[in-house]
Amino acid sequence: MPRNKQFDEQKALDAAMRTFWEKGYEGTSLQDLESATGLARTSIYNAYGNKRKLFEKAIIRYRNTVLHDLVAKLNNASTAREGIRALMQGIVDMHYDSRTPGGCLVVLSILESEQHDDSSSALVEEMIGQMKKAIHKRLLDARRNGDLPADLDVNGVSSSITAAVAGMMVMGKAGFPRSTLQGVIRTTLNLLES
Amino acid sequence: MPRNKQFDEQKALDAAMRTFWEKGYEGTSLQDLESATGLARTSIYNAYGNKRKLFEKAIIRYRNTVLHDLVAKLNNASTAREGIRALMQGIVDMHYDSRTPGGCLVVLSILESEQHDDSSSALVEEMIGQMKKAIHKRLLDARRNGDLPADLDVNGVSSSITAAVAGMMVMGKAGFPRSTLQGVIRTTLNLLES
After folding, report:
1. Is B40 contained in some domain?
2. How many Å apart are CA A81 and CA A133, to the nearest integer?
3. DSSP assignment string, B147-168
4. Do A112 and B153 touch (CB under 8 A)?
5. Which domain range does residue B179 map to?
6. What percent of the residues of chain A are helix, what percent strand, and what percent coil, each to the nearest 5?
7. Which of A122, B23, B75, B77 gets the most CB atoms within 10 Å of its CB?
């Protein structure tokens, strides 16, 4: 496969990802996908199979770019507290970045579960599960290293941080001001104290 | 208007509310609404105008029943802490109640914002705003009465509880076990301690 074709497929996939992220699965028409990718309907079918297969490829692309970068913020900070702060701040910054659609493709897709088949449902559920596991592992390692209190309820706190992250995306879409989401970050960090 | 007609319209509205709650706005077809309400398409148009008007009536019905009952749990408990616990427990119990669709109609509708017009978007955004205001007021009154610590960050904590509530609905839809959501409740209550 020539490099050029690979490059175009990547760009088209990014464009499809952003369209699903903005409009949701059901709300995205083939016409929307044609406009976004610059490909004709027949080329989309030839390259990706159908709308559902393209959605699955788009959500995997989202995991490998957007979610990968967020988990890197969590893991690359020097302390667990700074890692959680960087993860949550990254999510808020992404929501208000005019270059990306607001909210989160995974959260949107979970809520739209009635529109998905078993395969794409399992995929989006696995992604929020992986986010929770990454938070849980970061806190557990930090508790072992003495970076967090020995009596920290790692199961409860990692569940709460996952809920806060998903809830912030809902609140962002509902038009709450940035200061409200900063308040969620500030307060959630208090959960790491004991 | 005879009582009988009023009764039927209420029942039909409840059925429409549950259908939107289960399938989302875009995912609900007129055929679905016909099956759920037992009304023919022309009767639906005559009674409610169009699908969007019916959706708006359904979401107002949701506010006046489901959200009203949850806010009553928040306000009727003897302490703010018990009120927050009762609100969050009510949301988890509702999600796992086999007699209701999972998740929350308001959260689903916010995520589906691209599918709504300004009027219905404003309506669902106002509803999550009212939930946050109810939590904020309960905490503020409790801080004034000495039921919560005088230095409690009421703005931050009420934002965090709102995020936790919305996030729990996302996690419930993503298939996390009930024990994970109980962990969110247990940990979130720690935010009321200082």
Report:
1. no
2. 16
3. SS-TT--HHHHHHHHHHHHHHH
4. no
5. 59-192
6. 80, 0, 20
7. B23
Rounded to a whole number, what is the distance in Å from the CA of A1 to chain B's nearest CA? Answer: 37
Confidence label for B119 from pLDDT (cuts 50, 70 and 90):
confident
Angle between helices A178-189 and B154-173 (to 10 degrees): 90
Residue of B19, B59, B113, B185 best to disrupt the A interface, most CBs of A under 10 A: B113
User: What ipTM did this prediction achieve?
Assistant: 0.92
pLDDT of A3 above 60: no
Structure tokens at A132: 């929770």
On chain B, the residues whose CB falls within 8 A of the CB of A129 are 174, 176
- Nearest CB among A107, A114, A163 relative to B27 is that of A114
Q: Which chain A residue has the Cα nearest residue B157? A: A187
Closest CA to B67 of B140, B123, B11: B123
The pLDDT value given to residue B6 = 55
> What pLDDT score was predicted for residue B1?
45
The model carries a pTM of 0.93
Q: Cβ separation of A163 and B153 shorter than 8 Å?
A: no
What is each CA distance from A169 to A97, B53, B63, in whole angstroms?
A: 13, 27, 21
The number of folded domains in chain A is 1
Is the separation of the CB atoms in A88 and A168 below 8 Å? yes
- Domain of B172: which CATH number? 1.10.357.10
| A106: nearest Cα among A65, A147, A46, A138 | A65
Count contacts between A and B (CB, < 8 Å): 160
Nearest to B138 by CA among B66, B63, B88, B84: B84
Q: Judge whether A164 lies within some domain.
A: yes
Rounded to the nearest angstrom, the minimum Cα separation between A151 and chain B is 13
A20 found inside a domain: no
Largest CA distance in chain B: 59
Task: Look at residues A39, A74, A45 and name the one whose alpha carbon lies nearest to residue A158.
Answer: A74
Instruction: Report if residue B42 sits inside a domain.
Output: no
The tokens of B3 are what? Answer: 């009582």
